[in-house]
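Researcher: Following up on the earlier apo prediction. This time include the ligand. It's nicotinamide-adenine-dinucleotide, with the SMILES given after the sequence.
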Amino acid sequence: MNITIIGGAGHIGLPLGILFANKGINVTLYDKNYYAVKEINNSQLPFMEDKGKELLKKNKKRIFATTNKNSISKSDIIIVCIGTPVKNNKPDLLFFFNLFREIKTLLKPNQLLVIRSSIYPGTCKKIHQFLGKKFTNISYCPERVVQGKSISELPKLPQIISGISDEAIKKSQKLFNLICKKTIVTSILEAELIKLFSNAWRYINFSISNEFYMICENLGIKFDQLRKNMVEGYERNKNIPTAGFAAGPCLYKDTTQLTSYLKKSFSLGKVSTKINQRLPYFIYKQLSNKFKNNLKKKTIGILGITFKADIDDTRDSLAIELFNLLKRKKLKVIFSDDYASTLKNNLNKNKLISKSDIIIVGAPHKAYKKIRIPKNKYLIDLWGFLE
Ligand SMILES: NC(=O)c1ccc[n+]([C@@H]2O[C@H](COP(=O)([O-])OP(=O)(O)OC[C@H]3O[C@@H](n4cnc5c(N)ncnc54)[C@H](O)[C@@H]3O)[C@@H](O)[C@H]2O)c1
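Model: Understood. Below is the ligand-bound prediction.
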């Protein structure tokens, strides 16, 4: 058996490929990103992935990355892991469908085609229609790992399996049983909704704390302390998240896909998006109310610029959104991030602290936990993270 993963150099495709290779399967990672392909073939990871590097090195004989799509026609199994972006708050469906236009002539009905990206409901059936009736070996098996932890999480998570035919379901179960402990079979629409509901559920939860945070700030109360008191010894409150930027290429994007699919009937989706996306503007408004005309004379430092803690990924980061907003307002703003090391103008964290009058935690990286912020600096720490 050999597998081609399309989008194989990405955050989902690469760890999945490594796990299959580790089970003795020959894996081709087809991707348009030339630089990532080159790095993988040099046994380097193009991004942070826990335990990924060692396992890639160990299996280097079975993993080959390429920008040439011809391997698709020679594979028994093809897994699609490309992005499913949103554009102007709407799913960019063309991006995903264009791939199938590009590869249609390389696909054969006897191959198993597994769609793994988080898709707009109905997409899997549309792909079946586009490829033709003979292509019944199509399954939708959504990825549910947390970014950066695929290698350790995937084997522990049950895998949702759905398919156009029983044969597609059986073959997909067999495939995922190699790397997961359990599979759960559902209809295609259920699988599509399970994936989107999972991310929307998390996103809505974060929006509750973010709204509480804004309410508290407007009342002159610290939400992180209030939350600690709310949770202490009171089991029913224990799952309330901290406030913080709910960002990145998944939660906002998948809530937007669902909102777009359900139109007016998904009111929580719309409201949570509004709340979460508003945080950078709320922070800007807070600063302008506090410092008034003096704000232009202050240097604002953003500590952590990635979309969440302990990764190097800046896609759809609200910390970057905040940085750009402050720049547009013609304010002096600088940033530091221990992980996004390739970004231009990335300052050392100690330099950032000494240069800034105002410090905003943008991503609560573990490396900042014990950092000391001098008392004369104005600190905004949404997460209540710094010790
Ligand atoms: N990142 C996560 O934590 C996560 C978790 C669960 C599900 N997902 C979903 O998985 C999918 C992929 O996400 P990701 O974070 O891995 O994205 P990514 O951008 O890291 O990876 C996608 C890869 O696909 C490649 N690509 C794009 N179009 C291509 C084409 N036409 N041909 C060949 N290669 C192409 C890109 O170069 C990129 O390397 C998305 O639908 C996402 O919502 C992501």
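Model: The pocket of nicotinamide-adenine-dinucleotide is lined by residues 6-7, 9-13, 30-33, 36, 81-84, 99, 102, 117-118, 143, 145, 147, 249-250 (CB under 6 Å).
Researcher: Noted. I'll compare it with the apo version next.
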